[in-house]
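A protein record pairs a chain with a discrete description of its three-dimensional fold. The shape at a given residue is found from the number at the same position. Here is what such a record looks like in full:
>
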Amino acid sequence: MASTIRERIISTSWKLFREKGFGETTINDIINKAKISKGSFYYYFRSKDDLLGTLSEILDREYEKLEKEEPAGMGSFDKLLWLNYEVHAYMEKNIDYRLLAYLYSAQIVKEDFSSLLDRNRYYYRYVERLMEEGQKSGELTDRMPVSDMVKFFSMQERALVTEWCMNNGSFSLSEYSRDLFPIMLQGLRK
């Protein structure tokens, strides 16, 4: 029951952020739409800003979903490109670039706000599995440890998202990723 309330707060919040914008969404909006008490909200979150940290949970749910939909017969390198494209298409459609920009900046300036970089996230485990598969099959380089390859991959993804945010979402993140990510990852090929 408790996790259901927390999940309802998170999903309701992100729907409202998408519809109204983060700044225009109030805690009372979230409470009313989620049909919870104010105490329930504050039991799980100290503030509306705390909800931004839940983006990693939302994205990890998307990664879990995508892992189940992973195309068969595709090599590791192509799976990594596919994964990047699908997630960036999801972000472009469902997450306001201003929220991502705010979240990225919070990751830099707030010491206790590092949810996106948490190496225990589903995202990192999924990408690590793909990298390990690629090394075992001989498709990806063995000149660097998988942990460094995962770090490199995530840095390249963040670079594309940062560029998208800095340009106020003025171009298609998914198309930009589709065109540039293969070039950015060439160093991972064997």
